Amino acid sequence: MSSSPNAPTPVQSAHAIHPVDDSEACFDILAPSSKDIRNIRSHILQTFCSTCMMSEKDLGQQLRTCGKCHTVWYCSKECQTQNWPDHKPTCRESGLPKLIRTLISNEVLQDILHLCFILHFNLLHRSIFDEPFVARVIVAIEPSGILDFAKILLGKGLDKKKVQGMLQFNRFQPATAAQLESLPWHREMWRRERDRVDSEDFRTDPVALMDIAFACGQHSIAVPVHIHSLAMEQ
């Protein structure tokens, strides 16, 4: 049955309830406290020399970091000099290390990232414990207020100097086999974490690597991820 093109279009109304109050209350219940995050952040990220892959635990001393970008570490001046030709093109100031420490110190965000690995790599139906698998996680700092975000997105600018920000996950992208072959030091980092997890009697638990980078930057930092079997049973 056809209708006249001149007939008025019926108007449909919808009622919506703003969820901010409930969302904030739920977030307050689930989110770890700032104090807990600071306590975990101070020692959670194990660092390795970017040249020889020796860790602070191996050396028994603290590694030195690049004074400009603070995203790479070295065990000696010699290793820093050797790595400089490779590091120089991407050496820029960055707040990535502290951001990553905060990210992996948050148990709620860790659970979400573990779920991403479980779903993307089909870990519920296949066992991967004897080979590395890597995913690049693209993050950004964006306004927590939707109106502030919309103004920036539409190019209208902001009428205030400071805006509350939040960490945003923009992409979770599994690495291909070809990409893995071009990242030999990722494989070494995975092997060290695999040995550590095995020593704690979690030999059948998957171990992944998470390569975290800013959306518009060239820096990335690889972080080993132990995915407990308990996470796949829940």
Automatic annotation (TrEMBL):
PROSITE patterns listed in its UniProt record: ZF_MYND_1 (PS01360), ZF_MYND_2 (PS50865)
The keyword Transport belongs to this UniProt entry's keyword annotation: no
InterPro entries the record matches: DUF8205 (IPR058518), Mito_gene_expr_regulator (IPR052839), Znf_MYND (IPR002893)
Domain MYND-type: 49-91
Keywords carried by this UniProt record: Metal-binding, Zinc, Zinc-finger
This protein's record includes keyword Zinc-finger: yes
GO molecular function: zinc ion binding
Transmembrane segments: none
Cross-referenced Gene3D superfamilies: 6.10.140.2220
Protein name: MYND-type domain-containing protein
Organism: Mycena albidolilacea
